[in-house]
Specification:
- The structure holds 2 protein chains of 2 kinds.
- By secondary structure, chain A is mainly alpha-helical.
- Chain A has a domain of 209 residues.
- Helices cover 74% and strands 2% of the residues of chain A.
- Chain A has 20 helices and 2 strands.
- In chain A, helix 4 packs antiparallel against helix 5, helix 10 packs antiparallel against helix 14 and helix 12 runs parallel beside helix 17.
- Chain A starts with 6 loop residues before the first helix and ends with a helix.
- Chain B is mostly helical.
- The longest helix of chain B is centred in the C-terminal third of the chain and has 32 residues.
- The chains are: A mainly alpha, B mainly alpha.
- At the A-B interface, helix 5 and helix 6 of A face helix 2, helix 3 and helix 4 of B.
């Protein structure tokens, strides 16, 4: 037995095992519990990294659950897969790595941040469930399983958003999120059921190979599109996002960012891999572009006026998701035309995926910085903070790096990915990069405001005794800072080795189908 | 009695899907118009059940038997097993979310002393 072949199963199994071992391990004392928390998050990170190595420099991985052999996708002469299967290509591996990094950083951060609170066992179990759900969404090759993982991550996040249940705002944010996301989940299930009714399969690759154009398919893609756009926080359906992000414990917010990234993964996967014949070249790409532009612009406009640091960052998440939707929409418009793809399509997709990776790393870092400020000062209101740079030098430094990256200042990684998006969206219409640049400037403006309000200025009397955040919190932030700096220092290596491969894997639908369906 | 019901269903054809659609619309209508949190929770549960019904219907065959080899008897036609598995999973998920939602409603009631959405919004200010 070669352990490498079983990595896709480990990816979901490790966090699930962590979740269900928690009640036992949680009662063994603080040191063992913390060690267990870090160990399992780290093992998950290692698994995702080794899957990445195997996939970026090799073929897509396929794993069949419950079959005679893990690689037998078409058992006993069947013409379509009947078992639960995982399929990870370069695109999925990229998102899985981002999620695992954020999960590991959030774990380190939570150890110090949640230290003075009770309810550790529940927190740990839900945290691991959330990680398992998000990783499962990126790993699964089956639409119904995708729904199940969406629900696992949703239920865990409802619980975690309402974790501080003596705060009515937290309960309300969780309830609001739950209400809309349950409706969304049921619509998703109707869509998946309709596809099953017509094509007799829920395996993504099999659906993709059989998919024809028709009314039912168009209705289904509209349903699934709306649901997943809602889950990733695109503009008209974004209202749950700032509330949920602001009220969740900070270690969790950092993970919630990547869970919305997993929904983004699902959205793009559905458009590019399952419905390529309907989505390519036409309306769907433009819908993505328009939604992307609106999310970018309105997200940042709402962020500029916020006075509460985590809500401000929550609105920025909407605008950052807009960039990715714009880029992948441009790619979808170009997809199918070989010349357009080479001219600007691949650049757009590479830019979008680069931005997705950047976003999940620096956004998680920004939320951790906000959490660190809250830990030290006890307030999230920017008007009450001030002069904290003297007392919290490390937090200040890491915040500056993350803020420069999100605002797209050269030479940071945010600049590289945004530049690729400007360059390629210009080929479609010149107004698109204009909107994107205005958004970027406003982003810079609002982060300059945060920096000025929280870190600069005279020291306030209330905060003279404020000390730097504890070591574990700084360690969690340092993991993400190192990742940001790596992406900043070696953008061309990452572009040609990771993002280009992910973009090609996404555009090449035939390879995705072939990995499961064999030579068809 | 059952035979007559089955034959009535046969003549009606796809009418079961109409029932599903009606249930879904009813749930959405309730969600949009009701102010009471418990009623909203009930409407979510109705939505979940109607989707489950839709899934089961997808696998239905006229005169089909249960999809277990040694229990099906003379009749060789079986209903499709996959949608039933999907439904079982969906029921479990719906149970979890409904329970969680009710517990959140209890907490909201503790904080605000009311279940009316408008009232909660007003108290929050």
């Amino acid at each position: 037995m070669n352990i490498r072949d079983h990595l896709p199963a480990f990816l979901v199994m490790l966090p699930l095992l962590g979740a269900f071992l928690t009640p036992a391990v949680g009662s063994l004392g603080k040191v063992i519990r913390n060690g267990f928390y870090i160990l399992f998050s780290f093992l998950t990170l290692l698994t995702s990294l080794s899957i990445g190595c195997a996939v970026f420099w090799g073929n897509p991985m396929v794993y069949v659950m419950g079959g005679d052999s893990f690689a037998l996708t078409l058992p006993s002469g069947m013409s379509y897969p009947v078992r639960i299967l995982f399929e990870i290509d370069a695109f999925g591996a990229l998102f899985a790595i981002c999620i695992a990094i954020a999960s590991f950083a959030g774990a380190l951060f939570s150890i110090a941040y949640m230290d003075k609170f009770s309810g550790w066992k529940k927190y740990l179990a839900l945290y691991f469930m959330l990680t398992a759900g998000a990783l499962g969404m990126c790993a699964t090759g089956d639409l119904f399983n995708f729904f199940v993982f969406v629900e696992i991550s949703s239920i865990a996040s409802f619980g975690l958003v309402a974790f501080w249940r003596d705060k009515p705002e937290a309960i309300e944010a969780s309830f609001k999120y739950m209400l809309v996301s349950q409706i969304a989940a049921m619509l998703l299930l109707i869509g998946i059921g309709s596809l099953y009714g017509k094509y007799n399969s829920v395996t993504m690759a099999a659906l993709s190979s059989m998919m024809r154009d028709g009314y039912l398919e168009r209705v289904v893609i509209a349903l699934i599109f709306c649901v997943l756009a809602f889950k990733c926080g695109a503009f008209p359906m974004h209202t749950w996002m700032p509330d949920a992000y602001a009220e969740a414990p900070t270690g969790v917010t950092c993970l919630l960012v990547t869970v919305s990234q997993a929904s983004f993964y699902g959205l793009i996967r559905v458009c590019y891999s399952i419905f390529p014949r309907i989505a390519t070249g036409g309306v769907v790409g433009w819908v993505l572009i328009v939604i992307g532009c609106m999310s970018m612009f309105f997200g940042v406009m709402m962020a500029v006026v916020q006075h509460e640091i985590k809500r401000l960052m929550g609105y920025h998440s909407i605008s950052q998701v807009g960039y990715m939707l714009l880029a992948l929409g441009v790619g979808l418009v170009a997809l199918g035309d070989q010349k357009d793809m080479i001219d600007y399509g691949y650049t757009a997709m590479k830019g979008g995926l680069f931005h997705a990776a950047n976003y999940s790393i620096y956004k998680a870092l920004l939320f951790l910085c906000a959490g660190s400020l809250y830990y030290a000062t006890g307030t999230r209101n920017l008007d009450k903070m001030g002069g904290l740079a003297r007392n919290m030098p490390w937090t200040t430094g890491m915040f500056v790096i993350a803020a420069a990256a999100i605002s797209g200042l050269p030479p940071f990684n945010g600049f590289v990915s945004k530049w690729m998006i400007y360059e390629s969206s210009f080929a479609i219409h010149p107004i698109l990069p204009a909107i994107a640049m205005v958004t970027s400037v406003l982003t810079l403006a609002s982060f300059a405001k945060v920096f000025q309000a929280a870190f600069l200025g005279p020291a306030k009397a209330d905060f003279v005794a404020v000390r730097e955040a504890p070591g574990f919190m700084l360690a969690g932030m340092a993991v993400l800072t190192v990742a940001t700096l790596l992406l900043t220092l070696f953008p061309s290596w990452f572009t040609s080795n990771i993002f280009e491969k992910a973009a090609v894997a996404l555009a090449d639908n035939a390879a995705y189908v072939r990995a499961v369906m064999g030579g068809i | 009695m059952t035979d007559s019901i089955v034959s009535a269903l046969d003549t009606l054809g796809n009418s079961a899907y109409v029932v599903v659609a009606l249930l879904i619309l009813m749930a959405l209508y309730t969600m949009l118009t009701q102010k009471n949190l418990i009623k909203i929770c009930v409407s979510i549960a109705i939505l979940g059940s109607s989707v489950n019904m839709f899934l089961v219907l997808l696998g239905y065959r006229d005169g089909g038997e249960i999809p277990i080899y040694f229990l099906q008897g003379e009749n060789q036609a079986m209903v499709l097993p996959t949608p039933q598995c999907l439904t079982l999973t969906a029921i479990v998920i719906a149970l979890a979310t409904t329970a969680l939602m009710l517990s959140l409603i209890i907490l909201l009631h503790k904080h605000y002393g009311t279940l009316d959405i408008d009232e909660i919004r007003r108290l929050r200010g």
